[in-house]
Amino acid sequence: MDLPSKWNVCFSDLTLKDGLIFEINNDYEKFEDEFGYSEDVPLTNEEALNLLNMDDFEDEDNSDDDNTNNKITICGISFEKLKTKMTDIYGDGKVMKLIKQKGVGNCVPFDAQVTIKYIGHVEHVDEPFDSSFAREGAETFCLNEGALIPGLEIGITTMQKHEIAIFIIHPDLAYGKYGCAPRIPPNEEILFVVHLVDYVDNGSVKEFQSLSLEERKQFANVIKSVQGKFNTAKDCFSKQKIKQAIREYGKALQWLEEAELKNQEEENELNKLLSRGYNNLAVCYNIENMPRRACTACNRVPIPTAKTHFNHGRALLKMGEYSKAMEVLQLALKMESGNMDIIKEIRLVS
């Protein structure tokens, strides 16, 4: 079944909450490996719907029919029959799950920011009541903030990155006794196909912000929150939200600069994190055409690398400081001879 080309329904309409973010995939800096973003496995509307039309759901009552090998259409699927193939997440039958494509890594944390593609159905209705596939883009939500119905949040926290799963959700954890007219009737179970594209763990940052000022300076507490901020910044960068990425990196680096260290091991780890943060901050500043700030970020890197000198040279070129740019780009080339990105920048100066 093809979905309408213009689909105006979204989760925010159904939950009366804001917070929808559209994902934009585009590589800015191939040289900047820190911003690598997990590959999205694309599905069309038809492919998403076909996840429901598999051998798992053959109508056993029609086994003698000439069309035994045909798949059941969505309109003909009985939720009760689907449930016999599914796992009961909490044991009360209110959130049922069937994995159609296994994921990788850890399950989604409780307070994560998730990027998903999804399609939602009510029983015996061929047309979905909502579909991100129809809008041709993954959508991002923060869990535990009311942006999604409770049953879907429960289901998502059982998923791994790149997993595709089907959920049937009881009305108690969906739209309840009132439903959401005209799309969802009262006391209606709903079915979602969900593709978890990616997630960012925000829980450590929230925990850090609840600490006292003295506790926030302890390096053991700082490092967890900084990793969370770095992940959020990376996610912002992948969506071309460069200014937001700058803010996230800036906050993380501020926490690192204020950290109190106990030993050499903590100092070594601090320098690694500062180097990572300032290198990536320089990339962001160059993209936003802020070369002076990019230079400042590069100068604050405790452990300069070829990437540091490359970004510094690029910033100096933007400022018209050609001789200085050549010096730092030559340093970068010495550290990574044969790197074509560095060579291309040097040719701009020559």
TrEMBL record:
Show the taxonomic lineage: Eukaryota, Metazoa, Ecdysozoa, Arthropoda, Hexapoda
Name the UniProt record assigns to this protein? peptidylprolyl isomerase
Instruction: Give the reaction(s) catalysed.
Output: [protein]-peptidylproline (omega=180) = [protein]-peptidylproline (omega=0)
Record-level GO cellular component terms:
cytoplasm
Which residue ranges contain the repeat TPR? 306-339
Any one GO biological process: piRNA processing
- What Pfam families does this protein map onto? FKBP_C
* Keyword Repeat attached: yes
Q: Which UniProt keywords apply?
A: Isomerase, Repeat, Rotamase, TPR repeat
Q: Which residues form the PPIase FKBP-type domain?
A: 111-200
Which InterPro entries does the entry link to?
A: FKBP6/shu (IPR042282), PPIase_dom_sf (IPR046357), PPIase_FKBP_dom (IPR001179), TPR-like_helical_dom_sf (IPR011990), TPR_rpt (IPR019734)
What GO terms are given for molecular function? Hsp90 protein binding; peptidyl-prolyl cis-trans isomerase activity
Protein family: Belongs to the FKBP6 family.
State if Transcription regulation is listed as a keyword. Answer: no
**First-tier enzyme category under EC:** isomerase
**This protein's superkingdom?**
Eukaryota
